Every structure is written in C-alpha cells, then in structure tokens.
Amino acid sequence: MIGFRQVLAVPGMTPLLGVSLLARAAITADAMALTMYVVIALDMSYAAAGALVAALTAGVALGGPLLGRMIDRRGLRTVLSATVVPQLVFWLTLPVLPYVILLGASFAAGLLMVPVQAVTRQAIAAMTTAGQRQAAFALESVVGELSYIVGPAVVILCAATMSPGVVAWGVGAAIVAGGVGIALLDPPMRTGDEAADRPRPRRGEWLGARLVAVLTMGFGVAMLLSGVDLAIVATLREAGQVSWAALVVAVFGVTSVVGGLVYGALPRPMPTWLLLGLLGLVTIPAGLAHDWPWLCVAVVAAGLLTAPTLSTVSDAVSRLTPAGVRGEATGLQSSAASAGFALGSPVVGVAIDASAPAGGFAAAGLTGLLAALAGYLLSRRSPAAAPSPSSSSRAAEPRDTVAPTP
Description:
By secondary structure, the chain is mainly alpha-helical. Helix content is 75%, strand content 0%.
C-alpha cells in the first residue's frame, strides 16, 4: 500500500477525492431521484420517468466535451461557475415545473452538469508523477464504484421517510456542494511544465486511432456494466427473488473496490484491451446462476476486474492527450461512458426478451469482448504516437496501457 500512501500524501489529493465522492454519489443518484419524483410525486408512468432520465443523460453526453474544451480555454473556476448555478436553479425549481418543461430543463441540466468526474481525472494527471498514476487512477475508480454503491441506496432509503421532492433537493444540494468544494480546492489542471502558453493542437493531431481505441473500450465497459445490472434484475425476477438484487449489486460493487485496490498496488499496469476482454469472458458464465446466492458468487470475478479496467481507460486518456486539450479528451471519455450506459440496458434488454436472463449476461459479455477486440486492433494498426510539446517532460514514462504487445 506504499503507492496509495504516496498518492494520498500528494497535497490536495485526499480532499479532492473526498469532495469527488460526495458529488459523484449525488450524480449517480440523480436518475433514481428523478424517477421516484416522476412516478410518486407526479403519479406518472415509468416510461415518462425514463424519458426524463434519457433527456438528462443525453445532455450529459453532449456537454462533456464542450465543458472540457471550456476548461482548457477558460479555466476550471469559470466552468464550475457556469455549471453550479444552473444545477442550483434546476433542482430548486424541480417541484414547480410541469412535466413538459421538465423534459427540456433536464436536458439543459445534463448539458451543464458539474463535470466532477472529468475534473478529478484531469487533476490527478496533473498532480501525480508517472509512477504514481496507476495507483492514483485506481483510487479514482474506487471512488467511482463507492459512489454507485452509496448514491442510489441513500436515495432509496431517504425516499422511505421523505417526499420525492425533498429527496431531489438533497441530491441537487450535494451536486452543488461538490462543485463549490472543487472550486474552493481549485486543483491544477496542468503540471508546472505544462502550464506554459502553447498553441492549442488541432483535433486531428491528438484524436488518433489510439485514443479512439481507448474511447471505444470506455464505451464498451460502460455498456457491459449497464447490461449486467439489468441482467441481475431479470435473473432474480424470474426466480421470484428480485428483492435480493440490491445485495447482488452491492457484492458486485464491493468486489470492484477490492479489485481496484489490488490493481493499484501492482508493480506494472496491464493493457486495457486485455482487462476488458477478461471482464467480458467472466461475465458470460454469470448467466448460469439462477438464484441470489449463486449470483453473488458469479459476479465476483467480474467485479474484481471492473475498477482495474476503468482505471486503465482513465490512465490511457491522460497519457495520450497533450495538456492543452486534456479537458476535452476527458470530456469525450465521460461522453463515451454516458453513451455506453444509455445503450447497454436496451441492447441487453432485447437479448433477454429474445432468450432468457442468461442471454443478458451473454450479450453484456460479448459487448465487452467486441470492444476489447476493436481496441486491440485499433491500437495495433496505429503508429506510435509522437511526443507532444506539452508531454516532452514525460519521455521517460512507460508506454500507455492500451498498446498491444507485439
């Protein structure tokens, strides 16, 4: 654990991860809060709730690169000011907005969502050395997994004693508090060597095949994870044990945290395509489980590989992009993940409807395998990336983790 201690000893790292956990837990719970508000407070259908969540997700996917580009050009605090205020307005006015207006407002709120995840990753790349980044991004993935465990669960528990409107206000308050906290911390977005004023590179100079490979794998792992959640629910519903779904998802999340901690302590990184391929392979047999005890066992292997795979995607994005466009690149990464989460459930749902719940795990696993194969082929065909001016000080770093072994 020496690597983790060194990372947490970096000035500003511990409070950054703490504030990130608060804000990301709220952001992962916003879909649940909106769903409960529409279904319970507005007494509308789940389809109406799904449309509202889809509008929010579409906004997040489109806004990620735009906000990242603004960070590169205008700085962190400018972007946080431009996102925290709209979030405050949206969540405060939520209970008085008619549903039709709420659809448009949800899209706008997604478009201007506080970019906590992208900012955290960009700050980690600027605050750590090459030797610390494997452990640092592993910790960042662990924070992400904890947010998925804690956020929706807290919303569900609070909904048992509070009105959906109050719960939604609480989620919005946590998002706003996270944005304000990051603004107060004001973590660096570039290292000292990268801070010099340099011309912004053209998109064609950095958005090459290797970065496309990383984004494709980020999209694939998000699709896989979204599909696994749905397959778990479908399997337990068929067994008449749907009330145990929360426990199975919790086991999946906890094992992912363990996997992230173990991976961060390893002496060498592993290729993203290899980790994602393994994740896809171990996901498929989970369909053989037909009740909650065996399903808890079946998801352990996939859980152990989840956080390591996510951390290598973030690490690779930071290595493959010059400092002047790293905000836009991390925004593209967030957009790819949002698109993957949005598409994973429908694709796996079709597989479940056409076959059985086991088909859902198979579809999710095959999605991961296809994304890993695409990432491997793109990485192998692309020429070695030329060092950019802003990354010349990193010439001694190991090659990025998506490059295939020859």
